[in-house]
Specification:
With 387 residues, the protein is mainly β. The protein contains one helix and 34 strands.
Length: 387
Amino acid sequence: MSNKRFMITLGTVLCAIGLLLSLSGCQQRPNNISQLIYSDGYLHICGLDHTERLNLTDKKLESYPFRCNRMYLAKNGWIWSGGVQSVQIYKGQDWQIFELSQASNLSPIYYAEFLSESKDGLLWASSLSLISYDPQTGQSAVIVPTIAVPPATPAPVPGEWAVTSPSQGDIGPVFEAADGALWYNQQFDGIVRWDRATGQKQLWSANDGFQGQIPIPTRFIQTHDGDIWVGLTADGVYRWHNGAWQTWLFPSEEGICIASPQQSCYYRNQGDFTVTDLLEDHASNVWVAFNRGGVALWNGTAWKKIGDFEFPAGPRVLYEDSTGTIWIGSLQRGVGKYSNGALMMYPKLNIVTFAETPDHQLFGGGSDGLYLYEPQSDQWKPYPPQQ
């Protein structure tokens, strides 16, 4: 081969490699997404085995080498990640490891299942313990210490999804009501309402309106009328109304036949009514997503089943956008769009988290990657778009 021909061939190969790298950069998309948060022009992405940040202006995607469990956007603009091996904090530049101290004789917290914030600016981190952190003073305080050490949890396999709910030894989500009281799970005992002004704590256990089952909360909300709604692990949804707990007995023996070559039948059990999300919409309807029991709407007088989100659909998230549309994200049934009393399905999407920007761009993410909803075409499109 002559030198001239060799140089032409080499140049062609190098150009092809450059083109491929360029296309690869243009087509780089996040995947295996469990949570999205928008802040200051970026989408912050919590993944099964990674954390990412997408610049919505230049579409540049940056990855960070730590596993994200849960993210929370605080009022001061900081973003917290519960992490798995470490708690991380983002202050607008980069992620940094942050040590939430438990006590002088205990190691720092390296994992937070739930993160929330109270009106006084305190951050609340909970998993097997409950810790408060004051960003003004930099001081943390142990509210409920760890009293049980669980077995080691194996790392998630990329692309696989597992249902994780609080157990009896977990604190679970911490919720601040309008009166300033905090609600959470008292390990192995039940639900606590803590009046921080007086220091008094009220405990509701298995026999205090919960049909003999220790309540293990997965979600709390407070509706416009002041009622506290709580979703439980395995036992459905309850509300604190006029000084008493009220619940609804969902069918537990109803058979469901699954369309399959074997036409197998499946029967509901308690685990089907683990609550994965709770939402009050602009019209004061309360929405509940159950792990395997479907999606239901409470209009103030009766329950209404919404769509076909029962097993094996796996509804995970309920989200109301700026137009008042309700979006239902699931693992197996696709995405539901509920508007003006009608449900429309996008069956080939796996979306378990939504985020909307100030200019009303609606993003969704799941195991298949990141998507942007286009109202004009009424379609979800992969994002960033291929060039």
